[in-house]
Design a protein that fits this description.
The complex is a heterodimer of chains A (275) and B (263). Chain A has one domain. Chain A is 79% helix and 0% strand. The model of chain A has no long low-confidence stretch (mean pLDDT 84). Chain B is 72% helix and 0% strand. The radius of gyration of chain B is 19 Å and the shape is globular. Chain B starts with a helix and ends in a 6-residue tail after the last helix. The chains are: A mainly alpha (275), B mainly alpha (263). At the A-B interface, helix 2 and helix 8 of A face helix 2 and helix 10 of B.
């Protein structure tokens, strides 16, 4: 118990710093969000046009209403699981300030994690409720009945948390790429776009050819976005949800161990220039 | 004018020298943009595997509009990418002083300083899409089609550049405006699809308020159908000219309001 309290005594100040940063730059955050949500609205209009141009009511098991929920919950999930601690690691490696981090008596990934959680707290509070409420009101108006289901929603929150963990450690691994590439802009563009495709954020995996979809469903990328969104939508049975969350936990562990391994190797190789 | 052209050549060759130093960086940036666009094209392909036409537009027509939208976008990206840095950091750090102390126009100097070759990734996708879709479309081809297309592309690029200049200039008053540039710039994605798929509010927004629809859909639809030249082509020219005049006005007012970072 005292150990746990000690743990939070060390890391909570990082969260507080994150919150303060976020409060200071909240106008920036709102502008950024409006710019990003444009892509979700484009998807919304494109899918509406697709359904309007066809006599079919469903495509690969998705109705128009499902598709709209899919688009906006995918946006929300992508936003909430987004992690950019990696960028900071990259920058610190390049400018050498990682050296001070290494002499601190705390673990580097926990520092980033708590700092990021703090800075996300405000944005989550601002974005989560409006999007979920908007989606549910839309569903209610279209179908004429309340589709909001508490067990699935809670399972979504669980799956979302695991997805964030995977994203965090995946990006920590990626952050170490700064050892090899000086500029992370190009590689992160490649990473972002490939991840968004492989995780089903551009088009639901069910729309892809069956063998490809089967492979992608198993890879860690599906755990980032597709799994939580499908759980939210109630597309999976409880048995399947158990399997999917189990798979997510497996990938979380794998990413965690991988990041530790890379960290250990990287520390040996690290040479900070100047001083 | 000639002096500026000569300067431009010098700046670009300087920049290319710097690039040779970081070849992989450039390649990765261009490949990243190429992949990003290719995946969007794949999305369109998946959609059309389900339906024959999207609101009356065939696969080839949608690809033509999409490809057309990338040409002005990539040209603007290539030449004026430094405006982002004005919004994000140059003004905030007080580095803008440098641009005011040289005997050339400050807006020209800022934009010419960076030559963003990553944009070739977008441009290549655009050219590939156009050269794939044009032979498959039965477009009316006149003697004036190509010169007209060049003029339209110039004014469409000007729409991009002007909107970026205006929002970057806001930083002269507020110190930083990168996120405002981002917010406005992202709406250009609306122009990649036929405007008819959107509702009235979005159509009005991207036609009359932030006229990105004139960078792709309207001119492209003229080339596809030969109809409404006055609105489709004239609109692009007017929007480009008017926005550019407004952008210059805001930029010059902004410079007067600019205060360097004190230190």
């Amino acid at each position: 118990m005292t150990k746990l309290r000690h743990f939070f005594r060390i890391y909570l100040p990082f969260s507080r710093a994150g919150i303060q940063e976020m409060v200071a730059y909240r106008a920036n955050f709102i502008c950024f969000l409006i710019g990003e949500i444009v892509s979700a609205f484009i998807m919304f209009f494109v899918w509406k046009a697709v359904f309007a141009s066809s006599s079919q009511q469903t495509f690969n098991g998705f109705t128009l209403e499902d598709m709209v929920v899919y688009v906006f919950i995918t946006f929300l999930t992508g936003y909430l699981t987004y992690s950019d601690g990696a960028f900071a690691i990259g920058e610190e490696i390049v400018d050498g300030s990682i050296a001070t981090r290494m002499i601190r008596p705390c673990s580097f990934d926990m520092c980033f994690l708590f700092h990021e959680l703090g800075s996300r707290l405000i944005s989550i509070a601002m974005i989560f409720v409006p999007i979920v409420a908007g989606v549910e009101i839309y569903r209610c108006v279209i179908t004429g009945s309340v589709r909001f289901d508490i067990p699935h929603f809670l399972l979504y929150l669980l799956s979302l948390t695991v997805a964030y963990g995977i994203s965090f450690y995946f990006n920590v691994c990626y952050g170490f790429m700064a050892f090899f590439f000086k500029n992370l802009w190009g590689t992160s563009l490649i990473k972002e776009t490939l991840t968004s495709f492989l995780s089903g954020a551009i088009v639901p995996l069910a729309f892809l050819p069956a063998p490809l979809a089967a492979v992608l469903n198993f890879l860690p990328f599906a755990s980032l976005s597709y799994t939580p969104v499908m759980i939210y939508m109630g597309m999976y049975s409880y048995a399947e949800i158990a399997y999917r969350i189990g798979l997510q936990l497996f990938w979380l562990l794998a990413m965690f161990l991988l990041s530790k391994l890379i960290w250990r190797c990287a520390v040996k190789r690290l040479s900070v220039q100047g001083g | 004018m000639l002096r500026y052209l000569r300067l431009h050549r010098i700046f670009i060759s300087q920049h290319l020298k710097r690039l040779m130093e970081y070849k992989t960086d450039f390649l990765l940036g261009a490949i990243g943009l190429l992949i990003a666009q290719a995946l969007q094209v794949m999305f369109i392909g998946i959609i059309f595997s389900q339906i024959p036409e999207l609101e009356g537009y065939t696969f080839d027509e949608v690809l033509f509009i999409f490809g057309f939208s990338l040409i002005p976008k990539s040209l603007d990206h290539l030449f004026t990418d430094n405006l982002w840095m004005v919004g994000y950091s140059i003004v905030r750090k007080g580095d803008f002083d440098k641009y005011l102390t040289r005997p050339i126009n400050s807006l020209y100097y800022v934009t010419v300083e960076r030559f963003c070759v990553d944009a070739f990734g977008e441009m290549l996708t655009g050219i590939l899409l156009l050269s794939y879709s044009i032979p498959r479309l039965s477009m009316a081809f006149h003697w004036y089609t190509i010169p007209l297309a060049l003029v339209v592309v110039i004014f469409a690029t000007l729409i991009y550049t002007s909107l970026k200049t205006m929002t970057a200039a806001i930083s002269f008053w507020t110190k930083a405006s990168g996120h405002i540039i981002h917010m406005l710039y992202m709406t250009n994605d609306f122009s990649k699809y036929p405007v008819t798929i959107y509702n009235k509010a979005v159509q009005t927004l991207i036609t009359y308020v932030i006229p990105f629809a004139f960078t792709a859909y309207y001119p492209a639809s003229f080339f596809l159908t030969d109809k409404n030249p006055l609105f489709c082509i004239g609109g692009t020219v007017i929007a480009g000219t008017a926005l550019f005049a407004l952008a210059l006005f805001i930029w010059n007012r902004g410079i007067r309001a600019y205060e360097s970072a004190g230190s």
